[in-house]
From TrEMBL:
Gene3D superfamilies: Trypsin-like serine proteases (2.40.10.10). One of its GO terms (cellular component) is extracellular region. This is Plasminogen-like protein. Residues 80-284 form the Peptidase S1 domain. PANTHER family: ACROSIN-RELATED, HYALIN. Keywords: Disulfide bond, Glycoprotein, Hydrolase, Membrane, Protease, Secreted, Serine protease, Signal, Transmembrane, Transmembrane helix. Its main location: secreted. InterPro entries: Peptidase_S1_PA (IPR009003), Peptidase_S1_PA_chymotrypsin (IPR043504), Peptidase_S1A (IPR001314), Trypsin_dom (IPR001254), TRYPSIN_HIS (IPR018114), TRYPSIN_SER (IPR033116). One of its GO terms (biological process) is proteolysis. SUPFAM superfamilies: Trypsin-like serine proteases (SSF50494).
Amino acid sequence: MKKNLRSGQSFHNKQQVKDAHLGSCLQLLTSFILFQTILLRTIMKPNTIIITIWLAAFELTAVLSLQCGQPAIKPQTSRIVGGRDAIPYSWPWQVAVYEKRGRLIKFACGATIISDQWLLSAGHCFHNKAHVNGYLFYMGTFLRYEKQALAIQSSEVHVHPLFNMKTMEYDVALIKLKRKIPFSNKVLPVCLPSVRNYYPPVNATAFVTGWGRTTESYGSMRLQQVDVTIIEAKKCKSMYHSLFGPINTDLMFCAGHENGGKDSCQGDSGGPLVLYDPETDKWF
């Protein structure tokens, strides 16, 4: 599992981005990014995160102060061997992404609710796709498809401009929906990482959710969850390189189990990897 965290070039000597109240600093950075047409070559300080700056460029600063990351239905967090069915609706930020093909729709990826009109997903799920109206985003669903699920089309899809299909660096996309999401007990946003927890601690437990493959050929019909462990960067580089080639741990981190047996699978792409913060009682 890989997540993008920060950029490859520095632009500092500015006041650090604050956790709750971003104020004039963030406005300055937002203006700078917009002026530079969102070519994200900014900020490499360790207590700032590139995704926050990118969100700011799309006027999403309010996402940091939302009531987020507190599911009404508590998830099962005990660790088990392999994955398991999630408790229905206990991960309310989970989204199922469907691609429209004529009169048919096909399950494509996962995504994560981060505000009342924006989703976060993987860039490769939308890379080189023909049109932004060709997707439906299902929310408030435990089964991969439920008739009563909330379904909204996208109005904008923004794949990170530095996304590299070969290295999978900057593999992130922002999706703006055609209308705002009516939050409920089944549909809520997750929190974004703060200054304090911008990089998950080594050996921390995270949870991955999605409808990816289990023992079934075409993926699970019920939402699955699996616990994974955050792996130290040096070990991550060594393990990943032996299987797939070099990895830039300045832009990604590894989560999984050294002995195997637990992982996200095809179909989980773009979905959330979340950690629980006991100090705030929130998931991010």
